[in-house]
Give the backbone structure.
Amino acid sequence: MAQQHGIIVLFDVENALRTRSLDGNTYWFDNMKLFGSEGVGTEQLVTIVPGTHYLDGSQATEQVLNWLPEALGAIPSTVPRNYLAEQERADDRRTLAELAALGGEDGASGTELKRLQKQVGQRARKSGSGRGLTEAKLLDVTGKTTGSPGAYNYPSPVITDITGPAVTEKIMYPAQYGSPDMVYDGWYWAATVDTSRPGVYPYILHIQLHELVAHNDELVWESVEMTCESSLKVITDPKRNGFTGNGLGVLPLPPVPAAG
């Protein structure tokens, strides 16, 4: 079975949109630091891909990479998919309860109504075909509705393509896949890697961020396309068990105490 490599990319979305660049605004992590990955936690990650052969000299299977993009300081994408809708409904219930306490619209003062209107929050719609961005209220990073244009929760970045030397030289074969895991709207990017050709191979992630802009008294999420780069390092070291440091196989079992 192919070995799975997880690569998490954290994006400083706010600063990337301000500077219109991902340079200095990405933080890369993988699960192969134990095996020699370099630059973990920086934008110079080099992911180790070991195993052109097993310890017995036989050819190893290809390796599999999986990318998970996240927005730094945003509500984690791992919360339940109905989280945003539940927060909206809870906010509406609180607002309706306060209106009822004021005696309805006729009994509420203009100042009170304005305060409640701000509490309800603003809605933002998507522009174009941004996946997963339906019209919804703006939430801040704590999950509360907000009307402030400078304190909202950014949508998760979206990978739209993977290119570069690692792809053109046929070292890795990336593709977008559907999955029952709805964290990323049922879609994620993965790639198989040819481990028979050692070397360092750069690749480019094409990323879609979303910027909140005002158009004719309404808020719109507009897509902004950017790119960032990382590398694979295919090495000749054989695959080995991360627990024992030996070849792949069953884990050693403790001796069974003698009966008596």
